[in-house]
Design brief:
Elements: H1 3-17, H2 22-27, H3 30-35, E1 46-50, H4 56-64, E2 69-73, H5 77-86, E3 92-95, E4 108-114, H6 122-135, E5 136-145, H7 152-164, H8 179-189, E6 193-198, E7 203-208
Parallel strand pairs: 1-2, 1-4, 2-3, 4-5
Antiparallel strand pairs: 5-7, 6-7
Length: 209
């Protein structure tokens, strides 16, 4: 996948929808976004949020962990402007970059993501999840709440639709992997434990270093 092209596509799309109905649609997922917090280390100091968006998932995080420092990364400057306007905490560093271009460091307690990583193919996720694994402390955790393909056939079809532009140029395409494929990649990069929390309302993968 051409990551520069994909980044531009996502930046354009999310900058368009942020002032239309983004928060309205994502508030319907607030139970899932808030559930992420239940899987985080109790004594954590540093968190990275991949695809922070407008920060809905950070509201509960700062109610539970007011002193934690979060690096909020998103490709969309429009989304991050909305996050900044929320004034959730002074302990949030906003980063307007691609996940693939930013140095995560090596002293992070937790990496979280909500509805943001279903835009990349397996090889790209292998690269990204290596970065996530390497940035985490010894007992660190990666918690990903997302949209996943129901089966391999659906996964394959969604990628074909994207590459063939079946809905036309400039349209938004989701390209989720199955939970099974996500799990395989996470184990390949070194995570010792990969579990899932699945209900009718959300699907969350919890990977522990």
């Amino acid at each position: 996948m051409d990551l520069n092209k994909r980044a531009n596509e996502m930046n354009d799309f999310f900058n368009k929808v942020v002032d239309i109905d983004y928060d309205e649609r994502h508030l319907k997922l607030i139970e899932a976004k808030e559930k992420i917090i239940d899987f985080l280390p109790k004594n954590m100091e540093k968190v990275i949020d991949l695809g922070a968006g407008t920060g809905l998932q950070l509201i509960k995080l700062y109610k539970e962990y007011p002193n934690v420092h979060t690096t909020a990364i998103d490709i969309s400057d429009g989304m991050l402007k909305k996050l900044e306007e929320r004034h959730i905490s002074d302990n949030i560093t906003i980063v307007n970059k691609s996940f693939f271009d930013y140095d995560f460091g090596n002293d992070i307690d937790a990496v979280i993501s909500s509805q943001a990583l279903h835009h990349f193919e397996s090889n790209d996720k292998l690269t990204l999840y290596k970065k996530v694994y390497e940035c985490l402390k010894k007992d660190g955790v990666f918690v990903n709440e997302d949209y996943f393909a129901e089966n391999e056939e659906t996964e394959k079809q969604l990628f074909e639709d994207y590459y063939n532009l079946v809905r036309g140029e400039g349209k938004h395409y989701d390209t989720p992997l199955t939970i099974e494929h996500e799990t395989e990649i996470l184990k390949e990069v070194g995570f010792s434990s990969v579990e899932t929390c699945i209900t009718d309302n959300y699907k969350i993968i919890i990977a522990k270093k």
